[in-house]
Amino acid sequence: MGNLYPFRYNMKAFPKDHISSFLKYKRSGLGLKLEELAKKAGVGIRFLRELEQGKESLKMDKVNQVLRFFGYCTSLVPENMPSPYSILLNGMQKKIKIYLGKTRWISGILVGFQTKNGQVLRWKMVADEHLKEYKRTNHPSLVQIVEHVDIEKWEPESTA
């Protein structure tokens, strides 16, 4: 079972109540009562209550029905997808290497990112061969876009 789109993690990496906490947060943010959300999402109140309480055996089609109300869904994803928060905290504006497959990688500096609904979707990276010119001109044509879902792993590079 995967996590909320577009983040791609294995659920083992998260507390078992991740979806329930997310739903409670979103529902309270809209000021909706449990009964109101159940009606608007087209599910029964008992199902929604069990979902928010973190019941482990629920029908995924109904879970997605509720998540779609907020513009999300679950997805099956690889276990090794790196956390965008780890990259934000430890990789921004630093020299890093991003692996996009067994033989494909990019070395450079992350200069930004793009989000949708508060989720990191893409990274803006300047590859090593363009760093001098980018520092001099800041020209956007030197920035490469890397989809977060394509990243298998990343690591900091020493600047020595």
- The assigned structural class equals alpha+beta
Kindly report the spatial arrangement of strands forming the biggest sheet.
4-3-2-1-5
Segments where pLDDT lies below 50 for 5+ residues?
Answer: 1-16
Instruction: Tell me the radius of gyration.
Output: 19 Å
- Binned, the helix content reads 25-40%
Q: Into which percentage range does the β-strand content fall? A: 15-25%
**From N to C, what is the helix and strand string?**
HHHHHEEEHEE
Count the DSSP helices. Answer: 6
Largest sheet: 5 strands, antiparallel
How many DSSP E strands? Answer: 5
Structure description:
- With 160 residues, the protein is of the alpha+beta class.
- Helices cover 33% and strands 21% of the residues.
- Helix 2 crosses helix 3 (45-52) and helix 2 crosses helix 4 (60-69).
- The chain starts with 17 loop residues before the first helix and ends with a strand.
